[in-house]
Amino acid sequence: MIEPELSGIAGEIVESIGREIPEYARPLEGSFGRGVYRGTGEALDQFLGLIRDPDADRRASRKVYVILGRGEFRNGRSLDSLQSAYRIGARIAWRRIAAASLEAGLDGKTLSLLAESIFVYIDELSADSTEGYASAQFKQQGARLRRERQLVTLMLRKPFPDRPEFEQAARAATWEIPKSLAALACHERDLAEIIRVLPIGVISATVDGLGCVLVPDAGGPGRRRQLAEGMGRRLACLGSDVPPTEAAESWALAKIALTAVEAEALPGPGLIRAEEHLVDLALFNSRDLIRRLRAQTVGPLDDLTPKARDRMSETALAYVEHAGNASEMARALNIHPQTARYRVARLRELFGEDLDSPDRRLALELSLRAP
Questions:
Q1: Are residues 8 and 121 in the same domain?
Q2: What is the CA radius of gyration of the chain?
Q3: How far is CA 224 from CA 117, 237, 272, in A?
Q4: Which helix (H) or strand (E) holds 106?
Q5: CATH number at residue 77
Q6: What are the φ/ψ torsions at residue 29 (nearest 5 degrees)?
Q7: Which of 170, 222, 226, 371 could bond 265 through an S-S bridge, CB–CB 3.0 to 4.6 Å?
Q8: Nearest Cα to 21, choosing from 88, 75, 93?
């Protein structure tokens, strides 16, 4: 009863799909037309097979609808059109089956089971196509991410690659080469979430165990505020805005800043602009040398009590910052000028002629400023 009704309706379904779905409203020629006809015919044949044997295994026949889903993605369409086509096919098939069933005098319960079977089957076809669509999408995204990672790694190489090699890698990653960029360093665990909130056009990779993001035009109007708002409370450090050929230098600065924040030498979290902390970063990055320098320069304070050592260290730093001006030192230290003069006299007892040597004063300031 059902087979004669379904066997002749493939043409009607295809015609309705072309008429009702704008994306499919084109001559059904070539591979596109063959795909539509094949999908429609296969669906009808499978449905008849399931009616004959409800327990039949349809795993082998799923391939057609997985392929249709992939095709939708590769053609730049959403799944909405394909799922609409499935619903159109189900509607026409049910109308034919219902009419034939009523003429044959089938009872309502049987009709209800047939209707349910049709729409459950259509749900299965939709699920197969969704799987195919997602698979193609994942594959494309995976390939894009691989090309992005390769491009980032190439740009951080020293020396920078030849221009043709760089441009070829940028084309492969479909990345428009900017006039300038800045490298952003973050924890690897935060990379995916940070990429999600950053502007379109960034490329990223995991480098040296950290998340590395190359941000085009990071110094452009409103860009810093946009980046800071996107970071929220996540820690990320932004290197200098440089030409693409100097990406490695920007990345090196961003990494140093991230390490400095973790060592509590810089405030965080949030977005840290390394350019605003160059002195602190220079001291931090030279901390091993600074420790040796400190041992030489602040040795006269070692014999003081901890409280006195802290007080005289604070005074010594104020001394070099204000060129020994007791009034300025008093304001900076929030003490009486006479107290400041007393402390200066004490410094001279401790450091002697070193306080009058520009080189020794510089060494003293570096030692006292370093974290």
A1: yes
A2: 36
A3: 57, 12, 10
A4: none
A5: 1.10.490
A6: -120, 165
A7: 371
A8: 88
Rounded Cα distance between 341 and 353, Å, is 17
Q: Which residue range is the domain that position 119 belongs to?
A: 2-141
> Can you tell me which residue has the tokens 């001559």?
27
Distance CA(206)–CA(204), nearest Å, equals 7
One-letter amino acid for residue 307 of the chain: K
Q: Are residues 350 and 272 in the same domain?
A: no
Q: What confidence score (pLDDT) does residue 1 get?
A: 46
Average pLDDT of the residues of the chain: 81
Helix (H, G, I), strand (E, B) or coil at 303: coil
What's the structural domain count of the chain?
A: 3
Q: What does the pLDDT average to over 271-287?
A: 87
What DSSP designation does 8 have? T
Res. 266: pLDDT tops 60? yes
Q: At what angle do helices 108-155 and 63-74 cross, to 10 degrees?
A: 50
Structure-token pair, residue 37:
């006809």
Contacts of 89 (CB under 8 A, 6+ apart): 13, 17, 40, 43, 122
What mean pLDDT do residues 313-340 have? 89
| Domain shared by 7 and 128, yes or no | yes
